[in-house]
């Protein structure tokens, strides 16, 4: 096994300090001592402390996802949203200092952007299945806001029923039941077509933009 690089040692040391003492414990002096490097090495590799904090948040999030050995998408995309919600809450409760770092940075961290991309993909699958009752961007924003609020509340005060109750309330607000033999309503049909717009080669970019505006209007007014 090859020896860890200075960058790897710094990130590992910073993550350990974060876990043990929170963000205040991640000082340049403490990290350099724990990693066995000189302070200038941190600035050379990460630019400044903000760059280091972004790097450890992204690495911590990536390590968590890897540890979960995420299963492939299931047959029910709404169940995948449930699983994603539960993993989000679990991350916060298992690594509260890391979670707070990801959510309290002034700028949107790379870790949060990675999490948003995963969520957007899952929401898109629900839309393509014709089971989304609101626009994709609104659905993702509701899940993100409610999930973060629930997780932060649980970090401060455990409640065995809060996560499930909040999760199901959000899913009920943004999704529909599985399609039946009857014809779906206009909002569901519009949302499904909206999700497929990027793949429609028969329309020009301007036509797609106009179609997107029409479909968003149908979705927002027909519920």
UniProtKB/TrEMBL annotation:
Gene3D superfamilies: Homeodomain-like, Tetracycline Repressor, domain 2. The keyword Metal-binding does not apply. The keyword DNA-binding applies. Pfam families: TetR_N. Keywords: DNA-binding, Transcription, Transcription regulation. Residues 4-64 form the HTH tetR-type domain. InterPro entries: Homeodomain-like_sf, HTH-type_TetR-like_transc_reg, HTH_TetR. This is AcrR family transcriptional regulator.
């Amino acid at each position: 096994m090859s020896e860890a690089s200075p960058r790897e040692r710094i990130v590992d040391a910073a993550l350990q300090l974060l876990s043990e003492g929170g963000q205040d414990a991640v000082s340049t002096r403490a990290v350099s001592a724990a990693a066995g490097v000189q302070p200038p090495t941190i600035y050379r590799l990460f630019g400044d402390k903000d760059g280091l904090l972004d790097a450890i948040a992204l690495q911590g999030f990536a390590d968590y996802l890897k540890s979960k050995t995420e299963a492939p998408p299931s047959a029910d995309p709404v169940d995948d949203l449930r699983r994603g919600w539960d993993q989000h809450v679990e991350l916060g409760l298992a690594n509260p200092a890391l979670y707070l770092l990801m959510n309290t940075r002034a700028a949107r961290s790379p870790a949060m952007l990675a999490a948003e991309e995963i969520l957007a993909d899952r929401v898109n699958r629900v839309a393509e299945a014709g089971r989304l009752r609101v626009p994709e961007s609104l659905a993702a924003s509701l899940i993100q806001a409610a999930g973060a609020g629930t997780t932060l509340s649980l970090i401060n005060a455990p409640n065995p029923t809060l996560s499930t109750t909040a999760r199901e309330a959000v899913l009920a607000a943004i999704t529909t039941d599985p399609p039946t033999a009857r014809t779906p309503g206009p909002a569901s049909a519009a949302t499904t077509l909206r999700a497929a717009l990027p793949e429609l080669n028969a329309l020009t970019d301007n036509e797609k933009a106009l179609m997107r505006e029409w479909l968003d209007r149908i979705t927002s007014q027909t519920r």
